[in-house]
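A quick word before the example. In earlier lectures we treated sequence and structure as two separate objects. From today on, think of them as two lines of the same record. Here is Diaminopimelate epimerase written that way.
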Amino acid sequence: MNLKFFKYQGTGNDFIMVDNRKKFFDTANTDLVKFLCDRRFGVGGDGFILLEEHPDYDFQMVYFNSDGNQSSMCGNGGRCIVQFASDMGVIGSETSFLAIDGPHDAYIKDGLVHLKMIDVDAVEEGNGFYFLNTGSPHYVQYVQKIKEFAVYDEGYKVRNNERFRKEGTNVNFIEKDGDRLWVRTYERGVEDETYSCGTGVTASALVASLQGMKSPVPVTTLGGDLSISFQKADKGYKDIYLIGPAKQVFEGIIKI
Ligand SMILES: N[C@@H](CCC[C@H](N)C(=O)O)C(=O)O
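And the structure line, produced from the sequence above:
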C-alpha cells in the first residue's frame, strides 16, 4: 500500500503527519509507526501524528513517539498539526481541537502558531530539580554551560532512575542567558535529545518564572526560538501559550 504523508517541523522537532479522517490507519501498528519514524529505513521523525475527525471539535490529534507508542501531549506537534490543518483547509487561522490531554485553542498570527496549553496546578520542587506536567511529564534542572552539557548522558540517567523508569519522564536542562532561557531536552519515547520540545519548553519557562522570569519568556532551543506566555492562577498557572513557527518541509508517498 502507498501511504501519503506530510513532514512538518516546529523548531526542529519533526513530525510525520497523516490525514486519517477516513480512519484507514491502524493505530495499533506500533512497528509501522516506528518504521516510518526511522531516519534510515523510513521517512524519519521525532514523532508521528494523525489528524482525525471529531464530532465536537475541528479535529482530533493522535500523537505517537518515534518508538511507535501513543503518548501524552506534544506541544510542538500540536503547533505543527494546527499549521497542517490550516494548510489543508480543515481550519482557517483559528481552531479548537482535541488532544490526549483535552481541548486546545490555537491561532496562527504573523506566521507563528499560538497554542494554548493545559493549566498547570502544581510544580513539585525536589532536591536540585523541579517536576511538573504540562500535558506531558517534565523534570527540569538548572545547569551551567548548557551548550557543552552532556544532555544525552545526564538525561538518560534521570529518565531511567528508580522514580521515573516505569512511567518515564522527559528531562530538561535549562540556563538563563541574559533575558532568554536556554532549554535542551532528552525526550521520552525518542530516548535521545531532540532539537526542541514544546511541552518541555513550557515547563521550563514556568520553572524560570519561580526565579523571577516574567511572561512572555523567550526561549532558545537547538532548533530555534519559542516564546511562552502565561498568567499566575490561584493555584499554579493558567492561559499558558506556546508560541513559535511550524513549517511544512515536504510531502511524499511511502510504500508500506
Ligand atoms: N516533543 C514533544 C513531547 C512529546 C511527548 C514526549 N516525548 C513524551 O512522551 O512525553 C513536545 O513538543 O512537547
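Notice the following. The first strand starts at residue 2 and ends at 10. We will return to this example when we discuss secondary structure assignment.
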